[in-house]
Amino acid sequence: MLPSPTPTGSAACAPLLVAHQLSGGPPDHVVIHQLNAAWSAGLHWICGDEGCGKTSLLRLLAGDLPAQSGRVQAPPGGVFWVNLKGKEHDPTTVQGCWQQLQASYPHWQVELQQELEAALDMAQHRHKPLYMLSTGSRQKVMLVAALASGATVTLLDQPFVSLDQLSIRVVKDFLSEASQHPSRAWIVADYEVPHELTVTSVLHLTN
Length: 207
Fold this sequence. Notes:
Blueprint: E1 6-7, E2 17-24, E3 32-39, E4 42-47, H1 54-62, E5 69-73, E6 79-80, H2 94-102, H3 110-119, H4 135-148, E7 153-157, H5 165-178, E8 185-189, E9 201-204
Parallel strand pairs: 4-8, 4-9, 6-7, 7-8
Antiparallel strand pairs: 1-9, 2-3, 2-5
Helix pairs in contact: 3-4
């Protein structure tokens, strides 16, 4: 059984997302075994080496992967998760992608989306299909959507991959502010916690 997230500071008592005896992973490869964990408001980190199940856990929490056993208790305000790396997204324009996602998240913050477009230098790419974008710009499309979604819980998988230093700073600044939010949670999966960020809890996965 995997350990629950370890609190690193004062955390809100009421959990927003709860995993009950959760097991699962990619087809024929269970990597999460009987996980009991709860995440409250704030910024949380899931750490571990390559292949330990970080991405699989996010997908299980989002319902993107069916659980082999156990269940996830999600909040009424929704859980944001999207992976835009697949070829099925290639023909969709940046703006079209955001519009499709906005329709699924009723608390989408349009003003914040516009601020993030400017900060991440994405306004110029708005009408391009995703296949025309670099890996970094494609990552930014996901980040703009994730940070502007307004979902109660937002799941981010290695958000700094392929980004330039300025964009990394924009995302880290956002997460730093998000860590103080009283009623929303951001759960990030990455190899380690950036030293400049204060997190509410850390869950260490092992192979």
